[in-house]
Structure formats: C-alpha cells, structure tokens
Amino acid sequence: KNLCAHCANLCALRVKNFMTTLQTVLSGLMRRYTERVPDVQRIIDAMIDADMIDSAADIENDHIAFRTMGVPNLGIASFEKIFLALGYEKRDPYQFVEKKLNAWWYAPPALDGPHGGNLPRIFVSELRVDDLSTTAQAIIHKYTDTVTADPVDALDLTDGAAIDAFLHQPLWPTPTLADYQTLLAESEYAAWVIYNRYYLNHFTISVHNLPEGYNRIDEFVGFLQDRGIRLNSSGGVVKVSPDGGLRQASTVAQLVEAEFTNGDTQRIAGSYVEFAERRVLPEFANVPSDQLTRAHRREGFEAGNADKIFESTFTTQTGR
Ligand code: OOG
Ligand code: NI
Predict the structure, then answer these.
(1) Atom 1, ligand 1: which residue's CA is nearest?
(2) CA–CA separation, 255 vs 258, rounded Å?
(3) Sign of the dihedral defined by the CA atoms of residues 213, 214, 215, 219, in that order
(4) Which of 84, 104, 145, 314 has the highest CB neighbour count under 10 A?
(5) Looking at the keywords, is Oxidoreductase present (predicted)?
(6) Which residue among 100, 125, 309, 318 has the greatest number of ligand 1 atoms within 8 angstroms of its CB, and so is best to mutate?
(7) Nearest residue by C-alpha to atom 9 in ligand 1
(8) Atom of ligand 1 nearest to the CA of 250
(9) Rounded distance between C-alpha atoms, residue 47 and residue 223, angstroms
(10) How far does residue 184's CA lie from ligand 2's centre (Å)?
(11) Whose CA is nearest to atom 2 of ligand 1?
C-alpha cells in the first residue's frame, strides 16, 4: 500500500508524494495547535531569546500525540489508517488499566533527504469505552453513534489538504455541558476527547539536540521554570524510564474557552507541550556527538512515563 503504483517500489516519486502530503498535514496541525496553546510560542520565543535556536524550524519534533474514542468506526483502528497510508509503521502497544486506555506508537517513514530522517513519531491512544459505566457509555454513544461508517475510508489519503480539513472538523455533534461534566467526573480523558476530538494533543521538543547547557531534561526544565512555564508535577516533573534512556516532562494543559450546546461556555483543558530527552544507548557510547542520529538513541515510549503525562490535561493538574 505504501509502494508506488507504477514501479511497485518505495521510489523517489512515492517518497516525494509522502513528504508533500505529510508536510501539509503536519504544518496544518502545528498552525492550529500554536494558535490554541499560547505556551508554544512563549517557549519558542524564550528559546530564541536564550540563543538555543534561531527559529522554530531548528526544533526537532520528537513526537505528536492524538486521542480517540474506542468505538466502532473510530478509535485507533480508524485513525491509524491516515498515517499508515503516509508511510508510518506501527510499533509497540501500551496499556493503561486504571485510566482505561490503549495506545500504540508509530515510527515515521525513514525517508532520505533533509527532513525525512527527523519526522515526528506518532503516539495514538484510545479510550476503552466498553470498560466505563453504562451511564458514561450511553453519553459517549449518543455522540459517536452519529458516525455510521469509518470516516477515514471516505478520505483521499493522498490529499494533504483533505486530511488537514478532516482532522479539524467536528466528527460528532457538540456535547452539552452537562454531558461533558458527567464524563469528566468518571474519565478526564473521555471528557477531553468528547470536546476536543482530533485536535493535536501535544508536540514534543527534542531536548537532546539543543546546545550544551540545555540538552539535558533537568537543565531544560530549570530553564522553563525560570521563565514561569507551569509543568505537570504528576509522578515528579521529570518522568524517567526504568532504563534511564527516556526522560520526559510536559506543561500543564492550557485552558480553552469551550462552547457547548445551548450557548453554555466553560474554560476546559486544551492541549499542552512536551519535552523529551532520549539518551544515547550504551552500545553507542563511543559514537562522536556530531555523528549521532536517532538510531543511536533510546527509541519508543514508556508506559510508566506516559501514564503521568496523560494527566497534563487532568483537573488535578490544571486546577493546581
Ligand atoms: C499522551 C500521553 C503520553 C508520551 O509521550 O508518553 C505521551 C496523551 O496525553 O494523550 O505523550
Ligand atoms: Ni508524548
């Protein structure tokens, strides 16, 4: 499916088409996300001000994340088709029993060229709707049952503008404030998705590629705190994988003025920003620093870290 229809290979033409489509999708996501999350520009400006980068283009986006409802026609099974068609590869699953979530991560196409090697990974999670109370399930289905066929099947996945429009369109009717609040009391994640849908949940600054003095997560977190950026404290500000190789932190989600049905409005959690340091694997400890690539660093994700990062949008963090 990812191969060229003409030559049956991942040829230069096919790669070029992936890149064009992907760049359209990624820039559409980042544009709307930057508008919605003032911390994004604040952090970029602070990084420029500290001479870490010349512009936003110097930031490597480690990964982006999306949330979905695990119901027929939606969920990971539907959402992943978009990025699989653009050359992404499905990697490892993760489970979050307490939060009733499943997740997978996807590796970007290993395309040669100036940008291909450093496209963001993708982390997609879904709510295990069947595991919620019957009340919460009924609320979710009231909205999601309006989706009667997999909407991704109707999309032209070679058309970046069409994918961009799809990701930012309301897939189901706007919820009532009462339904939002009932969901929030049982599952913060459910409430987030019923309102925010496929809005980009976060992008992630690769800390290890920043200049010396900022390229360790503790240094970068100190910099953010000095500049007054509020960080998720769940499980400690810096989350460290058991192997020590993946170190992550995130902001507390910023509030957006949500408009519910009947003109009700409320400030609710929107999206946040994440920071990741991927350490060089022990077997590559002797590789000179100017020759290090992604292949030399800790890959993938870590369930224990992710479990706490999810809480960046929870009222336990936003209400601190
Ligand atoms: C995703 C939380 C997990 C990571 O990098 O492990 C995560 C979410 O909040 O939807 O981002
Ligand atoms: Ni993340």
Answers:
(1) 310
(2) 9
(3) positive
(4) 314
(5) yes
(6) 309
(7) 310
(8) 11
(9) 9
(10) 21
(11) 310
Closest CA relative to residue 226, chosen from 70, 94, 68, 42:
42
> Measuring from each residue's beta carbon to the nearest atom of ligand 1, which residues come in under 6 Å?
65, 67, 123, 125, 201, 248, 274, 301, 305-306, 309-310, 312
Mean pLDDT of the chain: 94
Pocket test for ligand 1, best of 105, 274, 307, 314 (most atoms within 8 A of CB): 274
pLDDT in tens, 278-306: 999 999 999 999 899 999 999 999 999 99
Annotate the chain with DSSP letters as a single string: --S-TTTSS--HHHHHHHHHHHHHHHHHHHHHHHHH-HHHHHHHHHHHHTTS-SSGGG--EEEEEEEEE-STTSHHHHHHHHHHHTT-EEEEEEEETTTTEEEEEEEPP---STTGGGPPEEEEEEE-GGGS-HHHHHHHHHHHTT--S-GGGGS-TT-HHHHHHHHTS-SSPPPPHHHHHHHHHH-HHHHHHHHHTTS--EEEEEGGGS-TTTSSHHHHHHHHHHTT--B--TT-SSEE-TTS-EEEEEBPPPEEEEE-GGG-EEEEE--EEEEEEEPBPGGGTTS-GGG--GGGB--S--HHHHHHHGGGGSHHHHT-
Sign, CA dihedral 49-51-57-61, equals: negative
- Atom number of ligand 1 nearest to Cα 313: 9
What is the pTM (predicted TM-score) of this model? 0.95
Cα–ligand 2 centroid distance for 278 (angstroms): 13
Each residue of 118-170: pLDDT tens digit? Answer: 899 999 999 999 999 999 999 999 999 999 999 999 999 999 999 999 999 99
Is the CATH code 3.40.50.300 the one for domain 12-228? no
Minimum-distance ligand to the CA of 201? 1
**Separation in Å, CA 318 to CA 188, 231, 251, 313:** 11, 10, 10, 7
